[in-house]
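Notes from hallway chat w/ T.B., transcribed later so I don't forget. T.B. wanted the structure written out for a chain they're using in a teaching module, and asked if we could keep both sequence and C-alpha cells in one place. Agreed to drop them here.
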Amino acid sequence: MAYDGRCSTNLWRGAGVGLLAGIAGAYAMDLFQAFLGGLSSGGGSRQENSGQQPASSEPATVKAADAIAGRILSRPLEQSEKEPAGQAMHYAMGAVTGAIYGVIADALPQAGIGAGLPLGAAVWAIADEGAVPALNLSKQFCEYPASSHISALLSHLVYGVTTDGVRRLIQ
C-alpha cells in the first residue's frame, strides 16, 4: 500500500489501546518470571520486576524509582515504599512501551508481523541489555551467565506476545 499523504491512523486510539495492552504484557511478564523463579532452586536469576538485577540487592526497577523519587520528592524512598514503587516502574515501562508500539502498529501494520516477538526482543535488547546497565541500574552484560540473559529474553518475549495479542483483541 502506497502512502498517499493522508494520516489514516488515530494516534490517541493507538496509544490508548497499546497502553492497556502493555500493562497486560507487563502482568504476563510478572507471571512468567514468577513461574521461572519457581522452577529455579533459589536464584541465580538477575531478572526481577523487569530489568536486570543490579549489583546491589535492589531490582533495577526499584533503583530507577528511587532515583525518580529523589528528584520529585527531594528524598529517597522509604524501605516500605520501594517494592510498590518498583512494581509501579515496571508497569509504567510496560504501559509506555505498549503505547508507543500501539501507535506504530496502528500506523504501520507491518510492525505487527511476528506476533509481538520482535517487540519483546527489541525491548530486551534496548532496555534490559542496553539502557539498564548503561544507567548503572545493574551490573554489565558480561557479568551475568548466559542463562540469565536467556531467561530475561524469554520474559520479554512473553511481554511482546501478550502486548501484541491484547492490542489486536481490543483494537
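Follow-up for T.B.: Residues 43-50 have pLDDT under 50 and may be disordered. Might be a good example for the class.
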